[in-house]
Amino acid sequence: MLKIYKRIRQTLTHSLLAVAATSPIVLAQGLGNSPYSALGVGELYSPANVTNMGMGEVGISNASAFYLNLQNPALLARRTRFTVFEVGLIGQSTAISQNMSNTVKKQNNFAGNLGYLALSFPANSRWNMSISLKPYTYVNYSIQQTADLQGTTNSAVYNYTGRGGLNKATFANGVRVTKNIYAGAEASFLFGNITHSSSALTYDKFNPNADNVTITRLGRTNYSDIVFKLGAAWRPKLSDTWTLNVGATYDPKMNINANQTDIYQQSYVGAVPDTLRLNSKGKATLPEQMRVGISLEKGNSLLFGVDVGMQKWSQYRTADNQSGGFADAMNIAAGLEYTPKPTSNRYRDLITYRVGFQYNRLPYQVNGAQINDINGSLGLSLPLGAYFVNHVTLSLVGGQRGVLTGTQIREQYVRIALGFSLNDWWFRKQVVD
Question: What is the arithmetic mean of pLDDT over 146-165?
Fold first, then answer.
């Protein structure tokens, strides 16, 4: 498994981008084919719900009575007595490009997935709890390299593919400690599996009747363990109309259980697979992460916020205790939310609009240069149902990571997210006249 991982990382570092299929459009799991998902535990899904995605994923300090906040468990305590159930759906269209030998190679793909299922309910007037299920990472890549074998008339075709990902089931609690101070914690069960496959096919270019030889190695890792997050928030009043929100979250460095199986096979008559490793136990290390946010809020009408995050991906280790070759990452996000007249009886005054911007320095490195991801977002929430306490939310994110210089891979993407927030009073005694 380690050799496969190193070869994949080396291939990406030297920017061997391949088209996964002959068709220009590929339907796949996760959010589509991504060469960078070959690294680590895969591509991370956004931690934000659909509401926060529309405003640059800002959500460490700000919360709402009508929507869940999945980014800071402390802000659960800001919810009212309403129980809320949320569903999020995500789809993404990606155009992947790379400049190879003065020729730009391109690939387009589209995919979608369930973003999350979440339920939050009050335990008492100061304490709220939530349970949620969402994908955490996804792995979906296909890379091909063709090379001549020096000193022979043979050529080789190398193929690297990966599938799978991790899921996250979370139980979170938020408590209002004092009038303006909130604290929270969440425990999540991470589970799932990731499969990496590498193969090499050798053939004689000048003798089509010669026997071809294929060597395949398949590695599968199953992950399962519990991880934690801590959160805190402070919400002082600045005036009768303005409120300051400050929040922070901390994910400690965690070692998670991993079971690995490796299978090797060479294709010839009578060949049988050779199991190199079967359910070998190890520990993968996930890095510590810290995020802080600050926002200004005017009633339920206007909110502007900024979030900053740091992720120590240099701490990441594979299940074999090998470095992932990552650099430390950071992100900066800014977002605005506006509802014209939240106390109005006119429907159009109750529609909420959002806009956001995000800059991410990703942990991936190509020839010593870190990859950047820059995106902008728009969002819209439409109230529904009795008293307009339910909402359907649409968020649109467009961005780019990497550039067409040197050997970098450029990914231009458009992400669309649809969310449903359903609010109701549970555990309320019914009064009958």
Answer: 82
